[in-house]
TrEMBL record, chains A, B:
Signal sequence range: none
Assigned keywords, A-Z: FAD, Flavoprotein, NAD
UniProt entry tagged with the keyword Membrane: no
Stated family: Belongs to the class-I pyridine nucleotide-disulfide oxidoreductase family.
Domain FAD/NAD(P)-binding: 14-326
A Pfam family matched in the record: Pyr_redox_2
Transmembrane segments: none
InterPro entries membership: Class-I_Pyr_Nuc-Dis_Oxidored (IPR050151), FAD/NAD-bd_sf (IPR036188), FAD/NAD-binding_dom (IPR023753), FAD/NAD-linked_Rdtase_dimer_sf (IPR016156), Pyr_nuc-diS_OxRdtase (IPR001100), Pyr_nucl-diS_OxRdtase_dimer (IPR004099)
Organism in which the protein naturally occurs: Streptomyces decoyicus
Protein name: NAD(P)/FAD-dependent oxidoreductase
Domain Pyridine nucleotide-disulphide oxidoreductase dimerisation span(s) in chain numbering: 366-472
Essential cofactor(s): FAD
Amino acid sequence: MAATEATKAADEAYDVIVLGAGPTGENVADRAHAAGLSAVLVESELVGGECSYWACMPSKALLRPVTARAEARRVPGLKDTADVPLDVPAVLAHRDEFTSYWKDDGQVRWLDSAGIDLVRGHGRLAGPRRVVVDGERVLTARHAVAVCTGSRAVVPPVPGLAEARPWTSRDATSAKAVPGRLVVVGGGVVGVEMATAWRALGSSVTLLVRGDGLLPRMEPFAGHLVTESLAEAGVFLRTGVEVREVRREAPGGPVTVLLDSGDEIIADEILIATGRAPRTDDVGLETVGLTPGSWLDVDDSLRVSGVTGGWLYGVGDVNHRALLTHQGKYQARIAGAAISARARGVPILESDRWGAHAATADRLAVPQVVFTDPEVASVGLTAAAAEQAGYRIQVIDQDVAAVAGASLYADGYRGRARMVVDLDREVVLGATFVGSGVGELLHSATVAVAGEVPIERLWHAVPSYPTISEVWLRLLEAYRG
Amino acid sequence: MAATEATKAADEAYDVIVLGAGPTGENVADRAHAAGLSAVLVESELVGGECSYWACMPSKALLRPVTARAEARRVPGLKDTADVPLDVPAVLAHRDEFTSYWKDDGQVRWLDSAGIDLVRGHGRLAGPRRVVVDGERVLTARHAVAVCTGSRAVVPPVPGLAEARPWTSRDATSAKAVPGRLVVVGGGVVGVEMATAWRALGSSVTLLVRGDGLLPRMEPFAGHLVTESLAEAGVFLRTGVEVREVRREAPGGPVTVLLDSGDEIIADEILIATGRAPRTDDVGLETVGLTPGSWLDVDDSLRVSGVTGGWLYGVGDVNHRALLTHQGKYQARIAGAAISARARGVPILESDRWGAHAATADRLAVPQVVFTDPEVASVGLTAAAAEQAGYRIQVIDQDVAAVAGASLYADGYRGRARMVVDLDREVVLGATFVGSGVGELLHSATVAVAGEVPIERLWHAVPSYPTISEVWLRLLEAYRG
């Protein structure tokens, strides 16, 4: 039955029911279907999920012109582009196009062509292998139900904040106009990316951070370099501050942000980017013995722990393993394979490190690119995380600007790279690159980390001259001494 | 003894003598010195070699502004940069700066600090382990002599060509003014890169190619995509043509190029980029039983075959294994390690695949980036080369533009990727990427190919979303079916 023809019927049975039609849910359904299982997606919002409409796609559509302009300005012969301002309406229109104007027809067509059913409405578990949509339509799953409902931005209980109708990541990526003054609360990826984008589009931006720096989960130099460049772009950064109260007197009017220091900041919008919560508060977890609103505890095959019969999966943000679209899709590939193997009665070993049914990369090789200027790209363990995990490590740092390919790429190139080596196995545990053009370089490290390629063999992986990737040679030379 | 203090003396003895102070020679000397051996470089031209003054550095300094401008033009909000012409004097001045104004003081200072001696002059072998510089100064080598004299452009014996004083790669990378009309002969890397650069700097360019397409050693689609973009840039391409005669009536005057078709092309300069010859014609090969002017036949430790005592090495272009700066430097690292191991009497196995003393990547994992627009990046074996070598292969092609990261990177992105898989071992034998921004992506494939990472494990190397590197996921999905 094709997606658009899905009709109401009592107790419709599927092999696999997927709650949530974001990239993760779509991939679970696709994998199951490709393995010969019937699959249905239940979605109450837009098919395509957060990523397509309010995260990766629109944010990168806003950020790419910023990066491209910054890079052109760093090249001799193009300095004049420094004086060409970004065409803001063109950038926003482009962003709108990349979100398909917040319509999901294209995604629905894809489901249709892929042979995956779609049920629009709010799905809730109603006991084992049973999902009720909008309180009336009942779906049953022969093999598995996968909860792929993702996460939402948390608005902390600051007095007056909710009433001030703050921006969350959804508003920051979909806003139709440039606020004159924008306060961004939070120094994680959303905070720094949106500060970068809206500053370049013309806002005066103040970035408020509770801790002492930006991008706290990454190597410290990443936050330092981004701090430096945001300052140069004219972003006001205040670290070590808490928002005590927020007031917006009139809808559409200015917002006053009171800090614990007693300072007040007046702005036109406030973006809250301080954390995420799982969208599991209203999916019927209590009907299967789990706690509504909790992150789902899963094994490496993405199966939820403690559910009798092992038919429930939690894939993507909901399991809190790695809140990234690509990692959710990866989990979906693994979960889809595990579901179909179990459906066929094939025994699988979910604890088999790097096996076909174990999302091992979630623990050892999660890549992430932050599309700021400079870009930040990291994979695997930071030095701190590796030490905490008990590895005996060596940390190698390198100034990326010292590489010919970098200095050719941009005048006044600034960047830094770190490689974390496991001294016992002589493999790379993690790598971080900061600088222009490192976003595509990251995958080399991801292959090295996930592939556990010995340092000795990496010595034979020759970086092409003169590219930025020659930083690898410098890192390896430094390690080998 | 420091470089600048090197003085004349009869029969000066070193552990290692290196002929040619390009990047390859410098690295051989550096590795030997780091291993505790004394080393001397003999150089008759500039220390730093072809790459620093007449190849990689100046060509990329000319090309980077072209690419950066092209990329800015493909981003919404920056279309106005389409109307900002390249500032030609600024680009040329930048190129001059990157070649250090064709002075080698910086490189000599580096030798000095590294503790490597330099003898300026023309070095020739004079029997085993003996080098005579400029016919008078005699150097002897306790352990090894390495010939790292590189290659030069070949000017074919076309009537009138030599007399017309054509450009070779040296002139094309160091020219002080933009020729109004430029004829480029040759569709390899030098030909397409210099056609790209000079066209963007304002020349009318005609590219003449003997064969039926560009970049003939790479996957065919690479040449097709570059052909398409050169045409759009306004380069006239003529394939299947031979230059029959060249005439330049007066120095500085126009040059007339006669084709075998009978057509005549009149231009201001003609660049010959049809091939390279080893600079071994005057290094005394005949004194050790070898043929002057020949490419040196070496084993995987870079030791020249058939020389009694095994003291002679041929590293870099001279051995014709891979005429690329980074590959010469790689060979230098391997050769330096082999020389020092042998000097210590440590037995080495030069045939040990991927071992510390075998330049295995020369045969299996040579990377190359062509800095055209779109960029072309390849590593390892092409489908044709893999088949010819007897591998049982599967070829996977993918439209790079179908990847979200690519469409976000540039409007109207055009690109293509190919992965060549060894079906017996399920590893990647080669990969080619064409498109904007793929230059840094290449190293991921280089790590996969040199690391022989199984496809099964590459499945866990998650590309960060939304980057162009997600093309890996598409390639792997297509392979796994």
